[in-house]
Design brief:
The chain has 367 residues and is mainly α. Helices cover 59% and strands 4% of the residues.
Length: 367
C-alpha cells in the first residue's frame, strides 16, 4: 500500500481552524466528519508523520469505511481533493484553502469513487447512502419507553455498560430498533459481542449495526453464523502470522474483511500470503500481505494450484531474464577482449597482404 501525501498551500506550524469552516461548513456536517477534517488539519503540521487511512481510523476509533465516507463528503462540498496515481491508488489529499484561495462556493466538485486505497468503478458499492439517525422528540421517547421490550432493552444495555445511557445513546438504540428493524434479541447480541471484543463505544456498535443491516443480517442465528465464520478466519490468520496475546485492531480486521469478503479469497490462500509475508519481512505485516493478495486477485487466483502456476511462470521468466543478461554480458566481454587484443598488437596497424605461396614457389623454381 503506497504512502499518502497530505499537503496544502499553507503551513502555519500550528493547527488553525478557519472561521469560514465553522460558519459555512461545520454546522451542516456530521460530527464524525468534522473530527476527520480537524485531524487532517492537525496532521499537516506534523513533520515526518506517516499518514495512512488505517492510522487515522485507529486514532478516532472509526472504521476505514467511516473515514472514506468523511473524505467523500468533504470532497463533495469542495474542502479537499483526492489525488490518485496512474494505477488508481490514492496518493494524496489536497486540502483546499477555505479562506478563498482556490475555493469557489458555486463550483460542484466531482466526487472521487474511493474504497480503502483504490478507486472503484461504483461508489454505491463502497459507501451506500447512509441512513440518517433520527432525533426523537420527547413525545416519541415517551411512547417508546412505554413499550416493555424497549424498556427492557435500555435497562439491559445500561447493565452491560455499567452506567446510565445518554439521550444520544438512547437515540442510537431506537435507531437500530425502529429504522434498521433489529429485534431486541439481535440488539442485545450486538452489544454483548462488541463489549466482549473490547469495544464499548456506541459509535463502534452503530458501525457494526449498519454493516449487519447492509449484509442483510436480521436474526441472532445469522449474526452468530457470520461471527463464527469470521472468528475462524481471524484465528487462522493470526496463527499464520504468529500473533498471540492480543486481538486484531480495527485496521487489521479491515484487511481481513477485504481479503475474505470483497475479494472472496479462500482461507488457505490468505494464510499462504501471511506465511510468505513472514518469510520476506520476518514480522506480521498486513500491508505487505495485502500487496501479495492484491497481485493474486489481479491475476485471477482462486486456488493453490493457481499460485503454483504463477510461481512456475515467475521462475521461468526469472531464469530467462538471467540467461539473457548473462549472454549479453558474455558477448560484450568477448567483443571488448578482441578489441583490446587488436589494439595492443603493433604489427596489426596496417592492412596485411594475401599471398599464394604455391604460385610463388613455381615462379621461383621456373626462374
Amino acid at each position: 500500500m503506497a504512502d499518502i501525501m497530505l499537503h496544502t498551500t499553507t503551513n502555519t506550524g500550528f493547527t488553525c481552524v478557519p472561521n469560514s469552516f465553522i460558519d459555512d461548513f461545520m454546522k451542516d456536517a456530521n460530527g464524525e466528519y468534522v473530527k476527520v477534517y480537524l485531524y487532517l488539519l492537525r496532521c499537516l503540521n506534523r513533520d515526518g508523520f506517516e499518514f495512512s487511512i488505517s492510522q487515522l481510523a485507529d486514532c478516532l476509533d472509526h472504521t476505514e469505511k467511516d473515514v472514506m465516507r468523511a473524505f467523500t463528503y468533504w470532497e463533495k462540498v469542495g474542502l479537499l481533493r483526492l489525488e490518485y496515481s496512474s494505477d488508481n491508488e490514492l496518493s494524496g489529499i489536497y486540502l483546499v484553502d477555505v479562506n478563498g484561495n482556490g475555493y469557489d462556493k458555486t463550483e460542484s466538485p466531482v466526487i472521487s469513487n474511493i474504497t480503502s486505497m483504490r478507486k472503484p468503478n461504483n461508489i454505491a458499492s463502497v459507501c451506500p447512502p447512509e441512513k440518517t439517525k433520527p432525533s426523537y422528540s420527547p413525545d416519541q421517547l415517551k411512547a417508546f419507553s412505554e413499550d416493555s421490550q424497549v424498556s427492557d432493552l435500555i435497562f439491559a444495555t445500561q447493565t452491560y455498560l455499567g452506567h446510565p445511557l445518554s439521550v444520544t445513546d438512547i437515540n442510537t438504540l431506537l435507531f437500530w430498533y425502529d429504522s434498521l428493524h433489529f429485534s431486541v434479541d439481535l440488539i442485545q447480541y450486538l452489544i454483548e459481542t462488541c463489549i466482549g471484543g473490547g469495544h464499548s463505544s456506541f459509535h463502534y456498535m452503530d458501525t457494526v449495526a449498519r454493516n449487519w443491516a447492509e449484509d442483510g443480517i436480521s436474526t441472532v442465528d445469522e449474526a452468530i453464523s457470520t461471527s463464527s465464520t469470521r472468528n475462524n478466519i481471524v484465528y487462522s490468520i493470526m496463527k499464520a502470522f504468529g500473533i498471540s496475546g492480543r486481538v486484531l485492531v480495527e485496521s487489521e480486521l479491515n484487511y481481513v474483511n477485504k481479503w475474505s469478503g470483497s475479494y472472496g479469497m479462500a482461507l488457505d490462500i490468505i494464510c499462504e500470503a501471511c506465511k510468505r509475508t513472514i518469510m520476506q519481512t520476518n514480522k506480521p505485516s498486513f500491508p505487505y500481505a495485502d500487496s501479495i493478495i492484491n497481485s493474486w486477485h489481479k491475476a485471477g487466483v482462486r486456488t493453490m494450484d493457481d499460485i503454483e502456476r504463477l510461481d512456475h511462470e515467475y521462475n521461468l521468466a526469472s531464469v530467462a531474464k538471467i540467461s539473457s543478461a548473462t549472454r549479453a554480458r558474455n558477448s560484450a566481454t568477448n567483443t571488448n577482449t578482441a578489441a583490446r587484443t587488436k589494439a595492443n598488437t603493433k604489427f596489426h596497424n596496417f592492412s596485411q597482404r594475401d599471398y599464394n605461396f604455391d604460385e610463388l614457389e613455381k615462379r621461383i623454381l621456373g626462374n
